Each structure stands twice: as structure tokens, then as C-alpha cells.
Amino acid sequence: MGEFDLIARYFSQAGAKRADTQLGIGDDGAVLQVRDGYDLVITTDTMVCGTHFFADVDPRALGHKLVAVNVSDLAAMGAEPAWLSLALTLPEVNEDWLAEFAAGLHETADYYHCQLIGGDTTRGPLSLTMIAKGLVPHGKAITRSGAKVGDYIYVTGTLGDAALGLKLVQGQHQVSKKHQGHLLQRFHYPSARVALGQALRNLASSAMDISDGLAGDLPHILRRSGVGAFIDVNRIPMSQALKDSCDQAEALQLALSGGEDYELLFTVPESRRGALDVLLSPYGVPVTCIGRITGASGKLELKAGEQAISYQHTGFVHF
């Protein structure tokens, strides 16, 4: 199968059909109609076999995850997902693998109302690069640089489940059968908090998604905003599956440094906390306040109640 046959068979119809896509796959470039009064948000993520996923991963899950982790970046900025581009490097053409990967990509893109509009295919070690584009009202993108002293720090959902799911896949941890499905779902099929991210446009002073662990990602906001923070580790939300499967120390380590959560981490000024509770209640996503922003520039303090604790972040780093 040639490159263009491969694209036509598996990717030419991927995702939702958007009215603002004037020209998609099949030409030298895509033509998109960007709405008046909106800014374009663009993010890129690469997944490499052996680094970000295992060679025997379910290709359908891989297609889902590739879309979801990119859309999660758009969600963290309050953007509406719109278009995707895919650069796919394959060691060989395996049609069964491609059919399942494309199905996972298609159904997830369709769920988030994204359209695959182009990309590239080439031969080489298996790697996947996706560029996601989204729209946000002009000047309303939520960035990492807006946190102010006194703001409250929040996270969505629960933390640490995906990291424990990874340990389960690797055979490094035993988990009771009743919790296995939940943990594997959180690892293989993350959910992007798109609707909630858009609801935060007029509430959050800063935001990002949690991909490398809370203790690794929060410092990005602190550096960009020129502030510090303290976190009460007793407030970090953990699922019953995590608490039942680990002792307290391991559960905390997974929640702080495990990564792969793709939950939203955001800050809110005190004056908007009441509005937050009212506005987010229809979304059905748990939101937990875990700390506050301080004036100690770049410094992240961890406390258990009133007692300071020492912790060294051990999350994943590429270099």
C-alpha cells in the first residue's frame, strides 16, 4: 500500500465534519475559516514507541490517547478544539494495526468535534506527532502566567490513577480485580476537560493540564507567574481505587509525581470562588481546592495540615 492509499483509506474522513474547514486532506495544505473575534490556539505533542507507549499497546487506545492529550492542552487554555494534523512514522504497513489506530483516532476526534485536516506519513521507528488547533474568544485564552498572590489552587478529578494503571500494565503492582478496570481506563483512555476549560475563561487566573505530575507541573505556573505556592497534601483528591491499592506514602507519590492524569490545574482569585462553585456545578466534574499562591517566587511548599513536609519530585523528564 502506498502513502496516499494509506491516507485515503484510514485518515481522509477522520473526525467530525466541520463547516469551517473549507479544504482538508488531499491538497498541499488545509484551508480553514477562522471566526472573527477569535484567537487560534495551537499545540503539538509527540509520542514515541518505547518512550511514551509500549510496542504491544492496543492501537485503538493509542489513537484515542493521541487525540485526548492534545485536546487536553487546548482545554487548559479554555479553547474549543477544532482541527488536528497528524505526522505518522511507521516501520511497516500493518493494515490491522492501522485500522484499529484510525478507529480510535476517528471516534475520539469526533467526540471532541475535531477534524483531521492533514499531516504526513513516512517510514521509520514508530512515532506519532499531532498538532491540535482550537479557537478561543479574543484575549480570553487562559495562560500559565496570570496567577497572583492569594489565589486559590484547584485540580479537577482525582490524581495518581493513571500512574498506577501504568504500573499495573508493567506488572509492577498488584491491584484487586474490582479496581483494575478503572485504573486501566484512566491510563489508556484519558479524558480532556474541554467544557470545563471553556467555563474557566472568566474565572481562572492561570491554568495548565497535569501530564508530568502535580509536583512537576505546578512549578511551570509558578515560574511563569513569578509566584510561589503551598499545597496541603491532605487535600489532594485520590480515588478509592488508589487508596485501596497503595499505602499512604505510595499513593501520595503517585498523585504528586506519577503523571498521565490530564486533569486541569488552575488558580482562582478569592473574589471569584463563589462564582466558580455556581458555574461549574452543571459539569459533574469534581473540583478540589488544594492550596494557595504565595509571594515566595518559584517556591513550592508541601504541607500535611500545618506541618511542612520534604518531597523530591521524581516525575518523568526527557533529558
TrEMBL record:
It comes from Alishewanella agri BL06. Residues 148-297 form the PurM-like C-terminal domain. The lineage of its organism: Bacteria, Pseudomonadati, Pseudomonadota, Gammaproteobacteria, Alteromonadales. Reaction mechanism of ThiL seems to utilize a direct, inline transfer of the gamma-phosphate of ATP to TMP rather than a phosphorylated enzyme intermediate. The gene is thiL. Residues 26-134 form the PurM-like N-terminal domain. One of its GO terms (molecular function) is thiamine-phosphate kinase activity. ATP binds at G119, D120, R144, S211. Substrate binds at H52, E260, F316. The keyword Magnesium applies. Pfam families: AIRS, AIRS_C. This is Thiamine-monophosphate kinase. It catalyses: thiamine phosphate + ATP = thiamine diphosphate + ADP. Keywords: ATP-binding, Kinase, Magnesium, Metal-binding, Nucleotide-binding, Thiamine biosynthesis, Transferase. Mg(2+) 4 binds at D28, T43, D73. Mg(2+) 5 binds at D212. Mg(2+) 1 binds at T44, D45, D120. It is an enzyme of class 2 (transferase). One of its GO terms (biological process) is thiamine biosynthetic process. Gene3D superfamilies: PurM-like C-terminal domain, PurM-like, N-terminal domain. HAMAP family: TMP_kinase (MF_02128). Mg(2+) 3 binds at D28, D73, D209.
